[in-house]
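Action item from last week, closing it out:
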Amino acid sequence: MDQAIRDEYERLKALGVPTRRALAGAKARAADPIPEDLKELDPDEGSIKVERGKFTVHVKVEYDRDLTPDDVGLGRFVSEDEDGAIKRPSPGRDEYKYFIPNYSLKERIRDYREAGLPKGQANDKAREGVFEDLRQAETMGEDWSPLVVIAEVFYKGIELCVDALGSVTLADRDDPYLFDVARDVIAEALAGAEEALAELRKDEENGPTTLQVAWDSGLGSLSAHAAETATHSFKTRAEALAYVVGVEDALLYANGYLQATAVMEMAPTNTEEA
């Protein structure tokens, strides 16, 4: 094994990342290192802005506090002793007394035995696993919370695509798995942005049609008076505007980035001047 892969593998294992994921992560990172501009990503620091070719991407990480332990694959709490349940060592007065792990004790023992572990060792490791899941379920929302990673892609100020992935769990705050997830989410959002931009450009020769749709969606950001003025200006001069400043710049106006007066100033007095 390459020394760089070995070092990264050992670092991930020390963070508590499972063996299989640690090895896969170490190999992936050696082949495709995490971009430096993503390393500032932090759920407590708001969003960061990164440039990817012609696009600007706003990336943020938020705590997904509405999820339950069952949503993130740990298990669920129950009041009665059911099949597969384990008894909680010290529940509170009004808390559930049992926990049913999604990956049950029997399933873990079976898997360890199939992997070649002796019966006693398989039983011990299986019990450690289910009680670790219980510990994480009990501390979820207090000591830790699952995360959602969001990427918003912009082109010349226009938001073209948003992609997100939730239920992201980390071994600890320094787990680089977060950056792997962010990179994947950005890639998906960029692909969507390319498709959206291609659709806009495909209609560029028919500027007023494209602009009318965007304009209607952007009027909500203007005051009533400005919206009325802008609508009148757009309907009488849309064609000229599209060919004078281009569809994409006109979309900026339509989305409220410039006021209606700016639109009127940029448009010619009549279509013949265009």
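Closing note: Residues 204-273 form one domain.
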